[in-house]
Amino acid sequence: MEKTCTEVWKNCLQIIKDNIPNQSFKTWFEPITALKLEGKVLTIQVPSLFFYEWLEEHYVGLLRKTVKKQLGEDGRLEYNIVVDKSSNSGSPYTTNMPSNGNGAEAKMQSMPIPVSINKDIRNPFIIPGLKKLNVDPQLNSNYTFENYIEGDCNRLARSAGYAVAAKPGGTSFNPLMIYGGVGLGKTHLAQAIGNEIKRSMPDKLVIYVSCEKFCQQFVDSLKNNTINDFVNFYQAMDVIIMDDVHNFAGKEKTQDIFFHIFNHLHQSGKQVILTSDKAPKDLAGLEERLLSRFKWGLSADLQIPDLETRIAILRKKMYADGIELPGEVVEYVAHNIDNNVRELEGAMVSLLAQATLNKKEIDLNLAKQMLKNFIKNTSKEISMEYIQKLVCEYFEVPVDMVKSQTRKREIVQARQISMYLSKSHTKSSLKTIGAFFGGRDHSTVIYACQTVEDLIDTDKKFKAYVHDIQKKLKMS
Ligand SMILES: Nc1ncnc2c1ncn2[C@@H]1O[C@H](COP(=O)(O)OP(=O)(O)OP(=O)(O)O)[C@@H](O)[C@H]1O
């Protein structure tokens, strides 16, 4: 007796289940239903285009083998794709893949599916239903262009941001990648773009999401079997702002999902805005294909603001908070906190809090007193210069010698400990540490750190030295 499509698919599922992890089976195969069997062609229904792409990319080999096992060498598979479940039209739209009549065997052999097919099918079907979404963009309304002070440090990134805000998806800055060090205004600028788009084009669907939150949502959606909703949601956006994409490092599955979402948005002319602590070329732990996408548009960096810009930032904040500070105090703060805008603002807030508590006028003296304490608690104190000074004082060796080429034992020891502590107590890269300690390369730093770690493990006296210095570092 001829088998029904349900029986054939049930047998296929048995084989598939034995060959992949249970969670993957639940996520990608349980939502599939068998629709029909015509001769040797089995048609299955998948819940979205994204689902179809994912199966084609990750399970094509397994599917091909399984179908052949059930239907013989000329067995084929066709997909029926439910394109828009949220449509109000009563029944879901569906479309068949492949649509060119070549049969799924041809389809299964050619992966990934050609871009032209994606494009034609996606736009007309997916967007109309999902456009009805009302999405909270998750933006902080204080992060506007108006509040973002322009300086040499951010001119390119800021004007690119403006261009993107005026024409989301319509410039070559797609994606726009804003990168730079801690607290230099990446989130503020990225959100300013989102706020400006929502102000001038309220109908646009904009979403801000940190990379960390996106990763968590992905894990949750796998757990709850809502992966389809998760992907559909992001694919329906006009603008996605993803903060801190360096946090994708090592998370391959989430990168995979984002790769698909990214492709979909980009092909549909939607805007992607990314922030990162490093330039795309320096991002470690990200898949090459994702990195190459990140390099497509424009990468613009944010540098440390110069004194003039720092003063302007402080004045703007004071103005916004309705506070007046003497000019010399503002200049003093801006002069002394010079590598992180968040810390700059933090110093001012502490200054004001102290003044309010002590009911004192904020003059230069108070600013100096207070700033002394504030600087101690910031990363400024733990600079490579400071580590070098501390280590050299401890071992009573001349400070400049650690940067020289000398191989004297006590100097080498001070140099290696300085490198080791710079690696663990500063955010400097191995390359920067090497360059700072006498123009050495990163492999010298790796070797130094390894040597120090080994000695800590084997030499009690040495371990005590390092701990002593670390204690001083923390107390200073
Ligand atoms: N050019 C600027 N003009 C006005 N305010 C700024 C500017 N740059 C940074 N800020 C302010 O500095 C603070 C830190 O900025 P933001 O959080 O955007 O930095 P970030 O680079 O995203 O930091 P992180 O590396 O921690 O993610 C915010 O309060 C922001 O408003």
Structural class comes to alpha/beta
Q: How many individual helices?
A: 21
Gyration radius (Cα, Å) is 29 Å
What's the oligomerization state?
Answer: single chain
Describe the structure.
The structure is a single chain. The chain starts with a helix and ends with a helix. The chain has helices at 5-19, 22-28, 49-58, 60-71, 104-109, 115-130, 155-166, 186-200, 211-223, 227-235, 252-267, 288-294, 307-321, 327-336, 341-358, 364-376, 384-395, 409-425, 430-436, 442-458, 460-475, and strands spanning 33-38, 41-46, 76-84, 93-97, 176-180, 206-210, 239-243, 271-276, 298-302. The strands form two sheets. The chain has a five-stranded parallel β-sheet with strand order 6-7-8-5-9, sandwiched between helices. The protein has 21 helices and nine strands. It has four domains: 5-81, GMP Synthetase, Chain A, domain 3 (2-Layer Sandwich); 145-301, 3-Layer(aba) Sandwich (Rossmann fold); 307-377, Helicase, Ruva Protein, domain 3; 384-475, Chromosomal Replication Initiator Protein Dnaa, Chain: A, CATH 1.10.1750.10. The protein is an alpha/beta fold and 476 residues long. Keywords: ATP-binding, Cytoplasm, DNA replication, DNA-binding, Lipid-binding, Nucleotide-binding. It holds the Pfam family DnaA_N.
